[in-house]
Each structure stands twice: as structure tokens, then as C-alpha cells.
Amino acid sequence: MLLEIIATCVEDAITAEKNGADRLELITAITEGGLTPGIGLVKEVVKAVSIPVHVMVRPHSRSFVYSSHDIATMIAEIKAIREAGAAGVVLGMLTAEGKIDEASLAKMLEWTGAMQVTFHRAFDELEDQFEGLRTLQKYPAVTRILTSGGPQPAPQAIPRIRELVEQSAGSGLKILAGNGLKWEIIHDFINQTGVGEVHFGSAVRYGRSGLKPIDPVELRSLADSIHQ
């Protein structure tokens, strides 16, 4: 079982690694669902930890429908993140019709190189997630989908997440479950969905607030529990 933790600064990254995180998702603007962090922060986090760092590539929080200027910005960010030595990027883009924007995705994948690519929770705004899964399976560079199984928190979408796990089996595309997970329910959630990776943000922070630092005791309890 792999545990991914959101980091918003170097201190988060160090605390997460010391207390059992297997991978980081590095973002800024956590209250907006995560935006691209500054390249200086990316470089410092990559230097500070030895676990993989996956960096959010999202230029604004208006929507997941992007203009040509947005796409150019995202490609520039991918190039810089790759040069900084990050292990992966986290991105997602939709058409105005609520489908995956394959044209824009393909343009970005030309620049990701050997980095892993997570398609983020834009996936949860798709009209048909199973069609979206089949679309992403056409792109071997996309290695995982971060999803809560729809717009609701992940614990409320267990049947959907289980079906996504089943339909992605053997394809090389992993399902990373996130949003609304808490360590108190994590064993039941994993057993019922079959996911191999889980994603935590505010639930491992002081007061379970996205604007507070990571609570090392809370994170260590979670990590020890799921790594048993």
C-alpha cells in the first residue's frame, strides 16, 4: 500500500518523509484544490527529500477547461519541473463538453519525459468516468488517476472506486483514491475498494485544516496502520 501526502512547503515535505509518506504531491493554494508551486519551491523540496515528488501543474482554479495560453503555460511549467528533478507531474484537462481534452493532454505528454503522470481530480467532473478511464488507458505515459469516484468524498463512492480499480487492472494505470479519507476508516476503505494507493491532505494536519502544518503523530499513526 502506497501513501501519498500533500506538501505545500519544504517543512511539510520533510515531516511527511520522516513520518511514513511514500510519495509527495507538491502544490500551492491548498484551499483552491491545488495550483502549480513556484519552481524555487520545487527545487528545494526535491533537494530536501529522497521520496518521489509529484508536482501539480494547474495554472488557475477557474475551471479545468484551458485556453491555448494556459496550455503554453502548463508546458513551460512541465519543462521546468522536469529540469528540477521531480519524479512526476499531476495534471488534468477537460473539454467544454465534459470529456478529457485529448489534444491538450497529448501536447503536454510530449514534454513529460520519464516523469510519471497523474491525471488529477478533473476526472471527477467527467460525465462518464468509465469512458474517461478508457481514454486515459490509450496514453501509457499516464500512470495513475487521482479520484474520489465522482464529486462526493471517496468514502461515499466505494462501489464506483472498486469498479474503476477492477476496470484498470492489468493496464498499467493505477487508481489513487483521495478526498475525504481519514485514518479511522482507511482499512475498511482499502478492503472494500481494492485500491493500492491512497492520498491524504488536510486529514493529517493539525486540526485537520489544510492551512495548518502536518501533524507528525497523526501521519505516523496512519502510515503505520496502512503499512502493516
Structure characteristics:
228 residues; alpha/beta; TIM Barrel; 8-stranded parallel β-barrel; 8 helices; 8 strands
- Which class of secondary structure composition applies to the elements? alpha/beta
CATH topology: TIM Barrel
Principal-axes shape call: globular
**CATH domain class name:** Alpha Beta
> Biggest sheet, open or closed, and with what strands and sense?
8 strands, parallel, barrel
Radius of gyration: 16 Å
Element pattern in H and E = EHEHEHEHEHEHEHEH
CATH superfamily: Copper homeostasis (CutC) domain
Percent of residues in helices:
25-40%
> Beta-sheet strand percentage?
15-25%
- The largest sheet has its strands arranged as 1-2-3-4-5-6-7-8
Summarize the structure in words.
With 228 residues, the chain is α/β, with parallel strands linked by helices. The chain has a single domain, classed as Copper homeostasis (CutC) domain (TIM Barrel, Alpha-Beta Barrel). It is 36% helix and 16% strand. It is built from 8 helices and 8 strands; from the N terminus they run βαβαβαβαβαβαβαβα. The chain has an 8-stranded parallel beta barrel with strand order 1-2-3-4-5-6-7-8, surrounded by 4 helices. β1, α1 and β2 form a beta-alpha-beta unit. The radius of gyration is 16 Å and the shape is globular. The mean pLDDT is 97. Its main location: cytoplasm. Belongs to the CutC family. InterPro entries: CutC-like, CutC-like_dom_sf. GO terms for molecular function: copper ion binding. Keywords: Cytoplasm.
